[in-house]
């Protein structure tokens, strides 16, 4: 899993739909997730630490969690099927743990309000992320190809403390 953070809320230039943009810690990968207007407003208000005069839905849920001594341990965006992302809220109450299905936008809005981490499965990042720093990606690939082209079988046996020989 890769821990990600909310980098921005953007608007798709063509559809005018809001997108929550998640980025990894190195700012090398961005994961765009299309969301609704209400979820965009909820995420923006959490990012800007705006407290509504009365609790909105995500604030109400956080208040309920606190009232029942429950904790959101983390959010996991675990799959992408037919252009739809799926997430879970990983909850705990004392020793009891429970995963609850959630839309990623709602999970993100709640995670921001509780200070909980947002994790994304590697497969989802591989399938749906967009590169942010193509030059750094190419440099990493070049360095890896160079490393692999210079490796020899003896390098593995020497590092493990084994001696290569006819009976090894």
UniProtKB/TrEMBL annotation:
Domain BFN positions: 1-132
GO MF annotations, alphabetized: nuclease activity
Record Pfam families: BFN_dom
PROSITE patterns in UniProt: BFN
Protein name: BFN domain-containing protein
